[in-house]
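User: I've been going back and forth on whether these two constructs are worth ordering. Before I decide, could you fold them both?

Assistant: Sure. I'll take them in the order you sent them. The first construct and its structure tokens:
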Amino acid sequence: MPRMVAAVEALFDSATALQKFSLVASSAYILQTMIQAGAEHISSGLLRMPDGQLSQATFCVIVERPDTGPVPQDRRVTAKRTAQQWRDLHPGADVGLIMLPYGIAALCVREEELSIPGALFGVTEPVVTTVLQAQFCVPLKTGPGTALYALTTEDVANWPSWLELLGGIMKSVSAEEPADGAEGSGEPRVAAAPRGTENHP
């Protein structure tokens, strides 16, 4: 929280105190929700738009490893099953299958309303905010389980820029051994961001 406050103060110096507080409170709530869901990686990223404005989004990775299941699993069947579950859960979402360099994955892009506790803003009623989220469900190659990659932002107007960035991240997912020679796990990992892409979440 202190680091987030310091970043907002430095980057959004023209914003009002209430705007800064709202950004920190909503971001912290999203992060806490992802932590409770078992996220193994969470990052909050900023992109500078062509007009000079900064846009914020949150990126997380959740890896699910059930105790039992087929080894190896049929990854196409797993991806199809996930896509169907998403269609049932989110009728208005864009859901489909996509082939990544790592392998087949299910993709879900949807709009969602988050109800943030009003206590964070000093009010009684919950504060409702609209976010866009893209999720990739990538079945693991090494046994039962999946890796879920999700990017969430309140900046609906700049969604295409975030979606393009997420596409680049997903293309970098690899099961290859790390460059340092350590033994690879066979599970999906994201390659280090190339220089000049410090805005990656």
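The second construct, handled the same way:
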Amino acid sequence: MNDAASRIAHRSSPAAVAALSDTAAVRRALDRGRAVVLPNPAPLTCVVAATGPAAVNTAKRRPAGQAVALWAHHPDTLDRLDGLLDLDRDTRRFARRLLGEELVTLLVPVHDHLSVPAWLAPATLSGWTLLFGARWQPLAPLLDPFPVLYVSSANRPGGQPAATPADAAAVFAPDAPVLADPTGPAPPSGPAAPGRRATTTVRLHPDGRAELHRHGAQDGSHPGPGRYLRHLHRSYRDRGAP
């Protein structure tokens, strides 16, 4: 068996599935400041999350101070962001819809005359803040007590993001608890899990322009960046436009 086949077999093994954690165990880990791995609905991949950025980076085996995304899943966090982002009111509303409905990751500008607060600093670099938006409803009871969370793709350097909890457990357990799929039995792992990718990243400029920063799950079915961006404007900003 070659190395690739061995990794696939390990990901799909009963041991990987048995290493999954329940919601109570994952909540305890978050309370203690540990990193956890959480699933997302298809076509998204799993993520590593924690209440502190260093825990996310340590779980991923990369420098503790590396920038991470802020998980913009909580209304209070979104409200706190409003006064910090260098976007007009309409573009902030557009950003909220992209985060909450399209579930993309956003790069958004911060006001250069304001000091970046400590809770936002780990997600901010050179005047831009990275926001992760996916809020899967089955995870809401787990996430709601943690309005400030940091997040990154569930992979280690050089690896692909884990498609399913079983995939993630083979990489991260027992170092980081991996939440079992809260909706029921896990879907197939490895190459049998179709079409899962990390989120698309969109950059919003101060003048309201949108730019595709990184290809991902959401734009994959569109024929090109321009068509995808027009879809975003029609669906979330220019409602009623042809």
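Notes on the second construct follow. Strands lie at 36-38, 47-50, 69-71, 105-109, 124-125, 128-132, 150-153, 201-204, 210-214. The two ends are 54 Å apart (CA to CA).
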